Amino acid sequence: MTDLFNLQPAPGVSPCVAMKNFFSKSFEMKGRASRSEYWWPTLILTGGLAACDIAARHYDRAKHPEAYAANPGALERLVPIVRVPATGAAETEAEKEARKQHSDRLAETSLLFSLPLVVATAAPSFTVSVRRLHDINLSGHWLWLNAIPVAGNLGSLVLSALPGKPEGRRFDS
Hints:
The chain has 173 residues and is mainly α.
């Protein structure tokens, strides 16, 4: 049987194998990561961050129900920091300040809920991104592309979706 933990890069791995590789290679920048080794952890961590945000919103709703009582519509349930004033009514300064305080408090709560996950996965996320670039025969320095707002992030997204190239073997040693 093929040992999927030592194959460079491990093609078409399951989510469990991808997560095991993600954490076991947390500080390894040599080598390559296949698309599945990159995208499964990305998908799972995105779901984890979404769960942290949902938990933070429920916690905030339980602690401060008055902030949610003014606008209990469907839009407010989806995005609690959005307040839609009644038709024709202008938002008062007090309402603006209350909305800002609520927004700030919700952002802080969300950060507190998601911070442990972000800290625990920062190094593995960085190194799997470098190894993914190696698989398409690019240097890890291409991650600097993310410093360019929007266009750089879209460029990185496209690069991470490209199929691997045999020339990327040069990064294995």
